[in-house]
Amino acid sequence: MLENKTLWKHDFDGECAPTGAAAWRTFSVGIFRWVPTVGGRGLKRSPVKYRIRGNASNPGPTFARAREVCRMMDEGWVSRKRSETVK
Questions:
Q1: Does the residue 4 lie in any domain?
Q2: Residue 21 gets which letter from DSSP?
Q3: Is residue 1 assigned to a domain?
Q4: Per-residue CA distances from 30 to 22, 40, 42 (Å)
Q5: Whole-number percent of the chain with pLDDT over 90
Q6: Phi, psi at residue 74, to the nearest 5°?
Q7: Structural domain tally of the chain?
Q8: What are residue 26's phi and psi, to 5 degrees?
C-alpha cells in the first residue's frame, strides 16, 4: 500500500482496508499508476485501473494478490478484466 511511489510504477491503496476487527465482510483495494503532476514537480495517482476484492477477516491474500498484480502490470501485463475477487 503506497509502497512503490516511483514514476510510472503501479501501486495499490484501499481506504476501507481492515485495520483491526473487521466492520465489513469484504473490502477492496484499487491498483493505480504513479504519474507526474501537471507542473512536473511531484507525483499523483492515476485513476484506478484494476480493483481486487477480498475477505475482510483475512486480508493477507488480497494484499498479496495486489502486490503480484502491481508487479505484473509494471512488467507490461494488461488485463481484459477490471476487477477480481480473491477467495
A1: no
A2: S
A3: no
A4: 19, 24, 21
A5: 74
A6: -65, -30
A7: 1
A8: -130, 165
pLDDT, residue 3, reads 63
Report the pLDDT value the prediction gives residue 1, as an integer from 0 to 100: 61
The answer to whether residue 5 sits within a structural domain is no
Give 59-66 contacts, CB < 8 A, sequence gap 24+. 59/17, 59/18, 59/27, 61/86, 62/27, 62/29, 62/86, 63/1, 63/17, 63/29, 66/12, 66/29, 66/31
Residue range 2-6: average pLDDT?
Answer: 76
Query: What is the separation of C-alpha 8 from the centre of its chain, rounded to a whole number of angstroms?
Result: 14
Each residue's pLDDT tens digit, 16-57: 777 766 678 899 999 999 999 999 889 999 999 999 999 998
And the C-alpha cell for 15? 481506504
Antiparallel, parallel or unpaired: β 26-36 and 43-45:
antiparallel
Q: What is the CA radius of gyration of the chain?
A: 13
